[in-house]
Amino acid sequence: MDRNTFNRISELSFKLNELQSNLGCATVAVGSRRNELLNIAQRLAADMSEQLEAWQMDLLHVPPAERATYLAPNPYLGTAGRRS
Fold first, then answer.
1. Taking CA 11 as the corner, what is the angle to CA 3 and CA 49, rounded to the nearest 5 degrees?
2. What is the 3-state secondary structure (H, E, C) of 50-64?
3. Which of 11, 25, 50, 80 has a beta carbon 3.0–4.6 Å from 43's, enabling a disulfide?
4. Is the pLDDT of residue 25 over 70?
5. pLDDT tens across 1-12, in order?
6. Whose CA is closest to 22, among 73, 76, 70?
7. Residue 62 neighbours by CB distance under 10 Å
8. CA atoms within 13 A on the CB side of 32
């Protein structure tokens, strides 16, 4: 695998994690009133993160049966009703 590709994936993954963290803080800051736009952005970020993680596992040639060991927990996927 090309090292530049791996570095780009890692950087994008970090940025998505940061985005999700900031969205989570913003959601808490609004209190009980949920902002629909924040929820949509959170679901999109979670979906992008899931796709990026799958791409990274493919590039690392990790067999699908072994991926659960390496996948990071993503609480936002539960919010979005994803990852089964």
1. 115
2. HHHHHHHHHHCCCCH
3. 80
4. yes
5. 688 788 878 888
6. 76
7. 14
8. 0
**Which two three-digit tokens encode residue 8?**
């780009």
Two tokens at 6? 């791996």
Residue 1: its pLDDT value, please?
65
Q: Are 80 and 42 in contact (CB under 8 A)?
A: yes
> H or E segment at 15?
helix 3-29
User: Residue 80 has what pLDDT?
Assistant: 47
Instruction: Answer yes or no: is pLDDT of 83 > 70.
Output: no
Q: How far apart are CA 17 and CA 30, in angstroms?
A: 20
